[in-house]
Amino acid sequence: MVKRKTVAVIGGGVSGLAAAKAFDERGHRVLGFERSHDFGGVWELSRSYPDVQTQSPKDLYCFTDHPMPDDYPEWPKGPQVHGYLHSYAEKHNLGRLFRLNTNVKDMKRRADGGWTLALEEAGQNWQRDVDFVAVCTGQFSDKNIISHPGQESFVAAGGEVMHSSEYTDPAMIKGKRVVVLGGSKSATDIAVNAANNGAQSVHWVYLEPVWRVPYFVGGINFKRLLYMRAQEQQFNAWGKNALQRMVAALLKPLVWANFRGLEMMLKMQLGLRKYGMVPKTPIENEVSCSVPIVTPGLFEALKAGKIKNIQGSFDHYDGKTITMTGGEKVDADVSILAVGWKLGVPYLPEADKDKLIEEDGQYRVYRLAVNPDLPDLGFVGFNSSFCTVLSAEMIANWLVRYMDGQLANQPSDAAMNENIEMMLDWKRNERPAAQIYGGLCSAPFHFKHFDEILSDMGAGKRTRSNLLAEQFSYPSHKAYGAFLASCPQYQAE
Ligand SMILES: Cc1cc2nc3c(=O)[nH]c(=O)nc-3n(C[C@H](O)[C@H](O)[C@H](O)COP(=O)(O)OP(=O)(O)OC[C@H]3O[C@@H](n4cnc5c(N)ncnc54)[C@H](O)[C@@H]3O)c2cc1C
To answer: Is residue 378 included in any domain, yes or no?
Structure first.
């Protein structure tokens, strides 16, 4: 018999909703805590910049039992994703499990097992003991705040400096000279939005050109080209045995040619040379969660001169002039810093953080979900990907079984530590791109990661019967729904 437990779910974004459903469904008592006034996490409306939309196509950004509405576009806008997440919460009656406006300030492991959470709601503090904690706080909860020399003189002269998440209304830049710093998609989304909404000028400053993938590559939706098992197998994955390494070595010239072909297409289609934006790194070495999708309108705006790109960074502000590291001077009224978020688990005690995070920032997590030295705790959403909703749902279903000792392959601490060391070694020595975000990214190895999770759970079915579809099409939420349903089911009592 599996004993019913009290489980805290911290965070009410995609991952928190997935976790609440998975633990509730097995009969556990779920206590969800979300510090914002609303569900949605990064898609919560007050945190989104205008025109934000998904990078993933809609059928790759949904839960297995809840497709996005037919009338949504292929790449839904932020408010549509927010509405979709609410509809999922309603469908499964998840609202009853959460306390909104409730911040988890810290948590301590109890000697008798479980954790004590320190909570705060509207100035009131209290504590709650739970048997298990599912951490679902994502990678984008705490702004990365940076400043450059002379920022005070810029502000004193009437300039405005903001983090990308604070750019919530195009009225903020109307008639103004805007400079956006950062190489990510949020930087280009904001630059394009500003250029299209009446900014007097827009400069976009980034350190290095990186490969950007357009929604359509050579006229084909990228989901049909880049999300396939056949494509995934061309990247240097972990845990290859001697035979697989030999096959990889034999196929290397073909793989090389495939990626050079893709690079050539991207260079031609986007005109990368013209804008000095050809990346130095081969595309196959760079693909990870940080690879941005091309913001629609970016290259059109570069062509029309509505956005000017500058490679480098800010060196200093001097009144309303920003001098770049390459020496260019740009006059500006608004400086938007699209420099990302601070990855972290601020509510964990320092001693526990030391067990979790290596000195170089890499996380020690088995299946990107648990650390054997931190019992009664797991992470949902730390396996972020190009289809994070599905990834979160998959790992949430794994985590509840792990907690209940119901995995078909329930790992020992020693086996988890051995696997963690193997993965760290692979990330550091074979695939440096996998170190992005503390190593908390399963892309581009979606199929391999899901294969492992399903095998652990004892799924009766792990691949589609149509072998062609399995090799040459994207991870389908419907298929993964069926695979999850084929796992041994149980109820806690
Ligand atoms: C603009 C943008 C576009 C994106 N597009 C895609 C895409 O197309 N495809 C894709 O796969 N991924 C995309 N992502 C990645 C995205 O982060 C994930 O898809 C997913 O939304 C992450 O959900 P999450 O629940 O793990 O984290 P979040 O959405 O960050 O949610 C975490 C929640 O935890 C809460 N929280 C944090 N700390 C505490 C605390 N101490 N106490 C209580 N609550 C707390 C936060 O308030 C937040 O609501 C995008 C991200 C951004 C920013």
So the answer is: yes
41 in contact with ligand 1, CB cutoff 6 A: yes
H or E segment to which residue 94 belongs = none
- Assess whether the C-beta atom of 14 lies below 6 angstroms from ligand 1: yes
Q: Categorize the per-residue pLDDT at 50 as very low, low, confident or very high, splitting at 50, 70 and 90.
A: confident
- Of the CA atoms within 13 Å of residue 121, those in its CB half-sphere come to 13
pLDDT digits (tens, 9 = 90+) for 77-102: 999 999 999 999 999 999 999 999 99
Which ligand 1 atom is at minimum distance from the Cα of 346? 41
Residue 181's domain comprises 145-339
What's phi and psi for 280, nearest 5 deg? -85, -25
Residue 197 lies in a domain: yes
- Of 276, 310, 339, the position where a domain reaches its end is 339
> Which pLDDT belongs to residue 269?
96
Could you identify the atom of ligand 1 that is nearest to the CA of residue 54? 8
Between strands 102-109 and 115-121, the pairing is antiparallel
What is the structure's pLDDT at 290? 87
Total count of domains within the chain: 2
How many helices (H) does the chain have, and how many strands (E)?
16, 20
In a domain, 493, yes or no: no
Do 350 and 290 lie in a common domain? no
State phi, psi for 325 to the nearest 5 degrees: -65, -25
Query: Does ligand 1 have an atom closer than 6 angstroms to the CB of 197?
Result: no
Instruction: Please tell me the chain's helix, strand, coil percentages from 3-state DSSP, rounded to the nearest 5.
Output: 40, 20, 40
Q: pLDDT by residue (tens digit) across 413-431? A: 999 999 999 999 999 999 9
How far apart, in whole angstroms, are the C-alpha atoms of residue 311 and residue 133?
43
Using the 3D structure, point to which of 289, 304, 339 is the last residue of a domain.
Answer: 339
Residue 71 domain flag: yes
Mode of pairing for the β-strands spanning 334-337 and 177-181: parallel
Whole-number Å distance, alpha carbon 15 to ligand 1 midpoint, is 8
Q: What is the pTM for the complete model shown?
A: 0.96
> Which residues, in sequence order, are CB contacts of 36 under 8 Å at separation 6+?
12, 44, 47, 100, 101
